Amino acid sequence: MGHRVIVPSPVGYCDSESPLPLEYYTFKRIATDLIALLSSLGISKAIYIGHDWGSLIVQRVTLWHPDHVIAVGLVCVPFVAPLKTYIPLEEIVKRQPNFAYQLWFAGPESERVLSSPQAIEKFLKIIFRVKGDEPVPWNTGGNMLAAKVGDLSLGRVWENQDVWGYYLRCFTRTGSMRGPLNYYKTRELNFRDELELLEAGKVKVTCPAMFIGAKQDRALPPSTWKGQDWVPQLEQHTVDQGHWCLVEDGGKQVQPILQKWVSKISKSAKL
Fold first, then answer.
1. In three state form, how does the secondary structure of the chain look?
2. What was the pLDDT predicted at 270?
């Protein structure tokens, strides 16, 4: 029996809607959306795998809906336990300067700046770069498009013109990056939601879990991978690549790890 792979677009991305209220972008809300999606397809349990925001979303699925999760795998973004005390983004950046870019994403200027097809295209060229591409100073905490980069070429992530065209159309479809940017504005909403998890004692990922960290990830370097001991069945791996390791070099380092792990889980789990 083969694996059935489902790749949803969360709220605010691609063809999914981008509602105005920030409550639609919380991890609890999106986790519930995913469970409803699978239910509509007649699926009660699944192996969840996520990268970047997807990593945070799928690990929260395991906390809010553990009975629907067989196993959970994360790429680049590690397991982050629910907080007992709210920490503002400004304080997070003081402790971890590698998150400085989030200050601009969470502020009002980014939505105003990223509101034209031309600006969005330049943004995608700046942010999706891998080792060997022309470097761009993007992690300053300020306007990314203010960087003097001239006529910036496509990074190697976008070598396939069909893939580039697809994502460019997806991100420019609404004429604004408001949907994706809203994810950076929900820290306090997520904190408030997760107080419920803490009060109920639902603060452990009890299913089989896996994390792949990318050594060259400038946003999430190895120093950010600590504190995952609250996940008892955690299996950890590293790849010598950057944040876009899923597509860098065709995913040659990440793909075998994911395939082996999914195969192992599939053989041992009661599907």
1. CCCCCCCCCCCCCCCCCCCCCHHHHCHHHHHHHHHHHHHHCCCCCEEEEEECHHHHHHHHHHHHCHHHEEEEEEECCCCCCCCCCCCCHHHHHHHCHHHCHHHHHHCHHHHHHCCCHHHHHHHHHHHCCCCCCCCCCCCCCCCHHHCCCCCCCCCHHHCCHHHHHHHHHHHHCCCCCHHHHHHHHCHHHHHHHHHHHHHHCCCCCCCCEEEEEECCCCCCCHHHCCCCCCCCCEEEEEECCCCCCCCHHHHCCHHHHHHHHHHHHHHHCCC
2. 60
State the pLDDT at residue 151. Answer: 73
- Give pLDDT, residue 109: 96
| Cα–Cα distance, 220 to 70 (Å, whole number) | 26
Q: Which residue has the tokens 């004692």?
A: 201
Candidates 228, 128, 142; CA nearest to 171 is 128
What class is the 22-268 domain? alpha beta
What confidence tens digit (pLDDT) does each residue in 189-211 have?
999 999 999 999 988 999 999 99
- pLDDT beneath 70, residues of the chain: 1-2, 148-150, 270-271
Residue 46 β-bridge partners: 69
Q: Where are the domains of the chain?
A: 22-268
